[in-house]
């Protein structure tokens, strides 16, 4: 890991005074969005990648990550040779592989939908909200082994104007709902709704995004 990346990771560690006398060290959640396949493998150049809390690659980026993390070559698929169903199944396998070390793995699969892997259930929140209504922490694992779930994408009508920015908007919608303490399934829906707003316009990020009326 480069010194610049290490500095960025260190900035995610903050010291906070406890109401008592003890000084506690708390770490903010580290979310890695690779943006392209050329950057996907960079955190895996050392074991520091295991400090990442959330990964949100697309299918091709997920393949690169798994190769870099040491997944057996025979298990890494070639997307061009797979059906939609096979893409989903392989994404589940790869998410589970990374989920041994990463708290949350979210693989966006385009028109197919999203695969999420975490040690929690679909009706549990991603973040716990503090009693002050402001502080946020990733929900502690509630089950021993990671579970993987597939959420099919809603139909996009009319035909998408542009796919540019849809993945970023999906992440934004998901994070928006997650930070408000919503359940995983609600956060996923919020992500899809934000992505649909992006698909309906030519610009990468639409002026207005209607995330989800069910988001708290």
How would you describe this protein?
It is a single chain. The longest helix is centred in the C-terminal third of the chain and has 16 residues, at 184-199. The chain has helices at residues 3-11, 37-40, 59-68, 84-98, 166-178, 184-199, and strands at 13-17, 23-27, 31-32, 54-55, 104-108, 113-118, 127-129, 136-138, 147-152. It has a 5-stranded mixed beta sheet with strand order 3-4-5-6-9, with helices on one face. Strands 1-2 form a two-stranded antiparallel ribbon. The relative contact order is 0.11. α3 (59-68) runs parallel beside α4 (84-98) and α5 (166-178) runs antiparallel to α6. The chain starts with a helix and ends in a 17-residue tail after the last helix. Helices cover 31% and strands 17% of the residues. α2 links the parallel β3 and β4 (54-55). By secondary structure, the protein is α/β, with parallel strands linked by helices. It has a domain at 31-153.
């Amino acid at each position: 890991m480069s010194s610049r990346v290490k500095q960025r990771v260190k900035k995610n560690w903050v010291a906070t005074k406890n109401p008592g006398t003890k000084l506690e060290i708390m770490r903010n959640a580290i979310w890695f969005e690779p943006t392209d396949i050329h950057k996907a493998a960079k955190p895996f150049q050392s074991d520091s990648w295991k400090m990442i809390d959330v990964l949100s690659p697309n299918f091709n980026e997920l393949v690169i990550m798994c190769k870099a993390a040491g997944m057996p070559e025979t298990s890494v698929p070639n997307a061009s040779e797979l059906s939609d169903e096979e893409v989903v199944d392989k994404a589940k396998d790869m998410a589970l592989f990374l989920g041994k070390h990463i708290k949350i793995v979210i693989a966006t699969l385009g028109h197919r939908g999203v695969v999420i892997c975490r040690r929690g259930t679909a009706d549990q929140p991603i973040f716990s909200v503090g009693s002050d209504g402001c502080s946020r922490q990733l929900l502690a694992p509630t089950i021993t082994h990671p579970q993987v779930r597939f959420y099919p994408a809603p139909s996009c009508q009319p035909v998408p104007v542009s796919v540019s920015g849809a993945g970023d908007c999906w992440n934004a919608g998901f994070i928006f709902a997650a930070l408000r303490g919503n359940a995983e399934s609600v956060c996923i829906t919020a992500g899809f709704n934000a992505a649909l707003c992006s698909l309906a316009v030519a610009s990468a990020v639409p002026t207005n995004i209607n995330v989800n009326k069910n988001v708290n």
